[in-house]
Structures
1.
Amino acid sequence: MMSVERYDTPAEGRLIGRLPPVRGKYAEGVAMAPFTWFRVGGRAEVVFRPMDREDLAGFMADKPKDVPVTVIGVTSNLLVRDGGVQGVVVRLGKAFARTEFLNGQVRFGAATLNGNASLSALRLGRSGLEFLSGIPGSIGGGLRMNAGAYSREFKDVLIAAEGIDGAGQLQSIPVDEMGMSYRHCTAAAESIFTSGLFTAPDGDPAEIACQIESIRAARAKSQPIGARTGGSTFANPNGLKAWELIEAAGCRNLRMGGAMVSEKHCNFLINTGKATAADIEALGEEVRRRVLESSGIELRWEIQRVGVPIRIEGAGA
Ligand SMILES: Cc1cc2nc3c(=O)[nH]c(=O)nc-3n(C[C@H](O)[C@H](O)[C@H](O)COP(=O)(O)OP(=O)(O)OC[C@H]3O[C@@H](n4cnc5c(N)ncnc54)[C@H](O)[C@@H]3O)c2cc1C
């Protein structure tokens, strides 16, 4: 159940009054914190849940040009700031979570969870997608982030990303035009991926199951998987490991307000219970400052930060 704000002013004076008619759903003033992995963040001005790809395309084509659009997956790599998100937040639902197996290929809808994608590949004895079980996000977020684990990344198995561009046109972007590199892709920021087409050759189900199991065990050992976190905070600099630099800078267990550098994996920041987004971001910046001071290396945020920063009274103390 989404927490939404009630308004006394007529819709015409608000953003929702300027948005085109859609078949899906709009909701205003939606509290983001309850469904972000970090459990922090302010309200989204409007959340749009499209009914299907055509509905999303119509929305993108007809929305006023000055209205910013932010698409989110399941927020496992996202920090929503305390001031909330202006404009429209697009969240893809069930209609975008379909899986279609083809000859040697598979199409996963963008809202499919990576874990479910790897399990459905296992059920059909299709190989090469086992690494998805190590990444707790959705296919859409994985396409944008070129997510990867255990020596494989999305770009290694992707054939094409399919979606809608900023003008509402359907698009299919072949992998070699996605500009995918380590935790990054150069596809236009306005593009919303609705599905991905991947290679999925036949494999030995027993071997696939064994790989998935060993990935799960390795993750449970090395990552704070039950915690309120956003995964790796910083990208690994060329040839180096961010966690080692953070450790060497003496940041393991460092705290700021309710935010803490994880004891288990010091490239993970954790909301210990009452953190604000400002606590988490300030802690991340402090880690960057200390790493720069101790090693001369400037860490790049891997976590995507969206929304308006505000300082909450008493936070970050
Ligand atoms: C415990 C933990 C462990 C993790 N381990 C790994 C790991 O091993 N490897 C790794 O790579 N990542 C890891 N992550 C990070 C995260 O799971 C990945 O980056 C994942 O791909 C993000 O997917 P998401 O659906 O959660 O996207 P979100 O976090 O919601 O969004 C991430 C970015 O993708 C964009 N986006 C989301 N959906 C779409 C879409 N449909 N179209 C266009 N853009 C979109 C958003 O705008 C945002 O910029 C981990 C996170 C956690 C919490």
Note: The longest helix spans residues 277-295.
2.
Amino acid sequence: MAMGIDAAQVQDVIITHMHYDHAGNLELFPNARFHVQDAEMEYVTGRAMTHPSLRHSFHLDDVVEMVRMVYGDRVVFHNGDDTLVPGIGLHHVPGHTRGLQSVSVATKRGLIVLASDAAHYYENVHDELPFSTVENIFQMLEGYRKVKRLAGAPERLVPGHDPLVLERYPAPSEELKGIVAALDEAPSE
Ligand SMILES: [Zn+2]
């Protein structure tokens, strides 16, 4: 509500991957459909989760909640790169998790790529330094190149966890400083 958006009006929510800091709380969007990659659902409900080191970044409740949404006709699956609506693209970038998807958005400053955890920090992509939470390190490294190519220029790529994002982009209002970044504005260096 801080952004003036009523969660009940939201129709589509993109789940980039199912790690606990990117999933859950689906019931807060009672009228939304959730967009997820086939590979992610298979990953979080299959054999890989028998490995504690792979499942430790997932919360079982989040996974069960998503399964319930599948049975409630609230999930739209995507298999690889796809267009959600004109101007919003989904891009399968495995490596961090098997079904991670980054999102490209046409904005007033042109196309930007929201990498999510396909790029935790600017330096992961810039220096091709893999992040420590990884399912497939080769695919993670390939993913850095993919999001870089999709973005086309460094200032069009937005990493998922870099505190520099909040420093480089202005807040939409004074009270949202440090909480929300206006990614459609040009970043400072
Ligand atoms: Zn993650």
Note: The chain has a mean pLDDT of 96.
